[in-house]
Amino acid sequence: VDETFVLHEKLDADTMLVADWPVARVLLMNDANYPWLILVPRRAGLRDYHDVASEDEVALLGEVNKASRILKKITGAGKMNIGALGNMVPQLHIHVIARFETDAAWPDPVWGKHAAVAYEAGAGEVLIEKFNTAAKEF
Amino acid sequence: VDETFVLHEKLDADTMLVADWPVARVLLMNDANYPWLILVPRRAGLRDYHDVASEDEVALLGEVNKASRILKKITGAGKMNIGALGNMVPQLHIHVIARFETDAAWPDPVWGKHAAVAYEAGAGEVLIEKFNTAAKEF
C-alpha cells in the first residue's frame, strides 16, 4: 500500500533522516531551537490523523509514543508536545517536540514562533545517533 | 483508577460539557472562532500523551479519531488539527480543532493567536447537540 509514498519536498528540505520504523519515517527538524522529531507514515494519500488505516493506527500510535519517550529521556525535557496540524504541508506528519521552560518559545507552541536555527556541523547527527541508540532499549 | 480525576479549573472555565465517553471527557471550547473540542482522559496524574496507560491508549486513540471524524463531518471543515501540548495546563488534554481556510488563524495554529469569542446564547448547545446526535452513527 505504500508504493506511491513520496516524502513531501518541504519536509524533505527541513529535516534530517533518523530512521524508517515499520509505519513511519522518523525525521529530525533541522532546528536547534528545540529537539523536534517529525513522524511521517509511509503511506500515500493521508491528510488528517484520522485517515490512518485501521491496520496501521495502533502501530503508529506506538511509534509516536516511543519517539516521545525516547526524546524525553535523552534530552531531559520537562514536557513533550505532540501535534498533527498540516495546514501548510498537506501530507500527514506528526510533530513530537521536547520542550523546556527555558526554550525560545515556552510556554507557547513552537510553530511560527521563531525562525529555524540550523544545527552546527555534526550536532544533528550526534542527536540522531543518541536517539537511535536509545531506541534499541525501547 | 479514575477516582481522583478532577477536571483542571482552567479547562472547566473555558469549556462546555459535551459528553463523557469511556476514557475521555469531551468538552467544547467556548470560542466561536473555531469548532474546537478538548478530550480529557478521566484519569488522574497524566501529563504527557505517552503517559496514558496501555489499557487505555487504544480506546483513547479511537475516541480522538471519532471526535475528529464527527466534528469534520458536521462542520464541513477542510482540515482537522490534533494536538497534545499542555505547556500551560498540565493536565493531559487533547485538542481536536476543525479548521477552515477562512478562519481567523489560518494557516497558523489556533493557540495564542486570537482571544476567544464566547458563543452567543444557545449556539454552543446547538453544536453540542449536533455532535452528540452524529456520534450515535459513529
Topology:
The structure is a homodimer of 138-residue chains.
Chain A: H1 9-14, E1 15-20, E2 24-29, E3 36-41, H2 54-75, E4 79-84, E5 94-99, H3 123-135
Antiparallel strand pairs in A: 1-2, 2-3, 3-5, 4-5
Helix pairs in contact in A: 2-3
How many strands of chain A?
5
On the 0 to 100 scale, the average pLDDT of chain A is 96
Task: Summarize the largest interface: chains and residue counts.
Answer: A-B, 29 and 29 residues
Oligomer category? homodimer
Structural class of chain A: alpha+beta
Largest sheet of chain A: 5 strands, antiparallel
- What's the tally of helices of chain A? 3
The first-to-last residue Cα distance of chain A is: 27 Å
Rg of chain A, rounded, reads 14 Å
Strand content of chain A: 15-25%
Low-confidence stretches of chain A: none
Order of helices and strands of chain A: HEEEHEEH
> What percent of residues of chain A adopt helix (DSSP H or I)?
25-40%
The strands making up the biggest β-sheet of chain A line up spatially as 1-2-3-5-4
- From the spread of the alpha carbons, the general shape of chain A counts as globular
Structure description:
The structure is a homodimer of 138-residue chains. In chain A, helix 2 packs across helix 3 (123-135). The radius of gyration of chain A is 14 Å and the shape is globular. Chain A has helices at residues 9-14, 54-75, 123-135; strands at 15-20, 24-29, 36-41, 79-84, 94-99. Chain A has 138 residues and is of the alpha+beta class. Chain A starts with 8 loop residues before the first helix and ends with a helix. Chain A has a five-stranded antiparallel β-sheet. Chain A is 30% helix and 22% strand. Chain A binds chain B through residues 47-50, 57-58, 61, 64-65, 68-69, 72, 79-88, 99, 106-109, 111-112, and chain B through 47-50, 57-58, 61, 64-65, 68-69, 72, 79-88, 99, 106-109, 111-112.
